[in-house]
Design brief:
Universal_stress_UspA; 2 domains; Rossmann fold; 40% helix; alpha/beta; ten-stranded mixed sheet
Length: 277
């Protein structure tokens, strides 16, 4: 069950997508909802050697102050209070790298972390948080698209399955959602039946059936560089409310160089996605 949820409020851009999503999830599971708003502090150039003045000028323009973080927290409390949900909230302040490390550590004590997707059109200090939480919290993360609006009603769930450890972790963490879903679809891309074996898409269907969950399958092939686009297209075609997937099945370095599925999702996400690593 999800009894204790943490939502990370973006301060440098609108927080409505994650707040609306978090409230609906807390209602669905009857959970306590806590929020953190981070006032990112600029790096002090006096303690860093070799960086240019242009770098610090750029870093400073993204700096937010504690007043803005407090405003976001007040917005959260007003919305959650009106919904009648048990809640709490706080602010922290630190440099981006240290703040994201701290937020990841805090996230370990919750059943779910809710994080806003980075918006490529409006870069900010918050952008590195999703990756930090995914890798370092040890807990499932719900990534909310910056275009999301309104509550999340996870009636139609799409599981992105590749037989990997992160994918298995994600399915396990998604069980409370799957048990409330009306339809479950499993999609696998480029699955080799001679290799998949015990971790095949069909094996996952059998596993879910033992949890009294019925799922359909969708198997197809496509170029490796287009997998994330294919998944998002399928999610749109099937009107999926929630996607479930493992994050970073390969190393971050390999994904950065080759352009992996997780990195593509971070950039192009259109559906709230439960991720685990």
């Amino acid at each position: 069950m999800l009894n204790d949820i943490l939502v990370h409020l973006p301060v440098e851009r609108p927080a409505e997508p994650v707040i609306d999503c978090a409230v609906s999830v807390a209602k669905l599971f009857g959970a306590h909802l806590e929020a953190i708003a981070c006032a990112y502090q600029p790096i002090n150039p006096a303690i860093v050697v070799g960086a240019s003045a242009a770098y610090y000028a750029d870093a400073s323009q993204y700096n937010t102050n504690l007043d803005k973080a407090t405003q976001r927290l007040d917005q959260f409390k007003a919305t959650v209070g009106a919904a009648g949900l048990p809640h709490d909230g706080r602010t922290i302040a630190d440099s981006p790298a240290l703040a994201n490390e701290t937020l990841s550590l805090i996230g370990r004590m919750y059943d779910l972390n809710i994080v806003a997707q980075p918006d490529p059109a409006h870069p900010c200090n918050h952008d590195g948080l999703a990756e930090a939480v995914l890798f370092n919290s040890g807990r499932p993360m719900l990534l909310v698209p910056y275009i999301h609006a309104g509550p999340l009603q996870p009636n139609r769930v799409l599981i992105c399955w590749d037989g990997s450890r992160p994918a298995a972790r994600a399915v396990h963490d998604a069980m409370p959602w799957l048990k409330r879903a009306k339809t479950i679809e499993i999609v696998t891309i480029n699955e080799d039946p001679d290799v998949a074996g015990d971790t095949s898409c069909d094996a996952l269907v059998a596993h879910l059936s033992r949890h009294k969950l019925s799922a359909t399958t969708n198997k197809f092939n496509c170029d490796s560089g287009k997998i994330h686009s294919a998944l998002l297209s399928l999610a749109a075609d099937s009107c999926a409310d929630l996607m479930v997937m493992g994050g970073y099945g390969h190393s971050r370095l390999r994904e950065f160089i080759l352009g992996g599925v997780t990195r593509g999702m971070f950039k192009s996400l259109t559906v709230p996605t439960l991720m685990a690593h």
